[in-house]
């Protein structure tokens, strides 16, 4: 885009417009994203916090530019079920596990 950035950039900037948020928002980003630097997402998060906005945030560890895989899909589904249907998603922490899912 080149420097200096004009008014069209500011008009479309998530960071500059975070204070305008009216609905529900879920942000998902990969810790190791090389397409959109994670610091860009953190700047938007900072602007949302300064504007006293509520939102959901999911950082996927050890991931590049991603939607979060199976875990991200589960969290997105839960977000939509809760915010669009007005129903509480299942409590997956109540599920009984028979083995530790973390492979060492």
Largest sheet: spatial strand order: 1-2
Average of per-residue pLDDT values = 92
Amino- and carboxy-terminal Cα gap: 45 Å
Q: Count helical runs.
A: 4
Question: How helix-rich are the residues, as a percent range?
Answer: 25-40%
Q: Could you tell me the radius of gyration in angstroms?
A: 17 Å
Q: How many domain modules?
A: 1
Number of strands: 2
Largest sheet: 2 strands, parallel
Q: SS-based structural class?
A: alpha+beta
Query: What is the H-and-E element order?
Result: HHEHEH
Uncertain residue ranges: none
The rough form would be described as flat
User: What is the percentage of strand-forming residues?
Assistant: 5-15%
Report on this model:
The protein has 104 residues and is α+β, with helices and mostly antiparallel strands. It has helices at 7-12, 14-17, 38-50, 69-85, and strands spanning 26-30, 56-60. It has one domain (7-90). The model has no long low-confidence stretch (mean pLDDT 92). The protein is built from 4 helices and 2 strands; from the N terminus they run H-H-E-H-E-H. Helix 3 (38-50) links the parallel strand 1 and strand 2. The protein is 38% helix and 10% strand. It has a two-stranded parallel ribbon with strand order 1-2.
Summarize the structure.
The chain is α+β, with helices and mostly antiparallel strands and 104 residues long. It has 4 helices and 2 strands.
